[in-house]
Amino acid sequence: MKIIESQFVAMILAGVCSLFISVSFAQPQYTGFKDTDELLNQATDLQAAILAPMSYAAAEKAYQTARKYTEQGRLDTATKYLVKANASLRVSIEAAKIGAVVFKDSIDARERAVTANASQFEPLLWSKAETELTKATRKLEGGNAKNAGVEANRVAMSYSAAELAAIKTSIVGNSRVLIAEAEADPNKVSRNAPITLAQARSLVAQAEAKLDANRYEIAEPEGLAAEAEYQAKHAMYLASQAAMLSARQMTAEELILKWEKPLRELANTLEVTTDMTAGYSVASEAALTRATSLVAQNAEKKQRINTLEIELGDTEVVVQDAQRMQNQLASVERLFRSDQATVLREGDDLILRLIGLDFPEGQASIETQYFGLLSSVQDAIRVYPDAYIMVAGHTDSQGNDDTNLVLSQKRANSVRSYLLSNTGLPATRISAEGFGESRPIASNTYVVGRAQNRRIDIVLKGVRATSQQAAR
User: Does this model's pTM top 0.85?
Assistant: First the structure.
């Protein structure tokens, strides 16, 4: 093994020495900025700035100096610096080719760290890895290839550590912040809600352990992190209630009555007992039983409706109409990828839920990257030429209610304006309405649910009637 390593080092040393000897005797001729730019592009493609930092920096400095003298009209002096730039670029290109072999694993690990946004989430670890790579490539470029393999392994490990830490921070970072806030909370969360806070810490630890096992399987860790955020917030709330009891700002009876109130209201709505003379168990069990029954009844009714629709298909007209509508629906569904939109039917309405359309935080401007998605929306509208279109804007429950209502209206208006400008439809055919946070489709408790609630729905009204009219 040692013989092989010695041969590898000897090969690298020979390559580096021959490189600098060949450059020393080369007499490059000035060919203008065109040739230098071509060399610069080659060096950039080979990542010479990283793998051959000394010669690349020298080339860049000479190149900029040549530009300066060219602007001053001193072409003879500019020519001299271009010759220097060309020579340094040739050195950097050859050195980068050697470096690409020696530091292949390091560069691969660096790219993965870049993908994980390590410079943003873990700047110290990222900076450490960058410094190690620069030192290692400088040594190789300077002809010291003896410890190249050892240096390359160390650099790759540093980038890998930065990548893993960045992935963890991106997923559980917010949970960590909330736990730290809970620990520093003046209501003494660690003492007043220790069980809930411990649960938050445990969930974060579980998420990190999952990422240690496989950093690219993030679905489960994301769920654990979301639950940890909830538990940390819940712990702070519980501690605030306990603190009020300790300070005698609220009696135990008042606290219990406060928590019983929503359950009583729910029981009343479901028309079940609100008896809490022996605690909440009777009322909660009755409410749960009733709610479960209603859900089952609703599912049964939907099944019966589907069955009746099939039975009504005995007449030729209804069958043809149903088939036509099914074909139209399928054609609309094919317009969108699963990460762009969900197509839903509600009675005679068709809803295009644009899950792939995002806005900058607190803004209503449509970014160019979503024009393709909105182009598909236009194609869907053409499938139902007589349908009335409503653009519905929705937000999550974060922030002020009134602010959310205004923001949802602005976003709906932006989409309406875009569709009017690109479809040629009359303004009377498209309306926009913002509903703020009033119509959630998922729980606002979790990050995933809040993301689902921030949405734009394109509602095509009366598509069933339109299809039937078209059939006649």
Answer: no
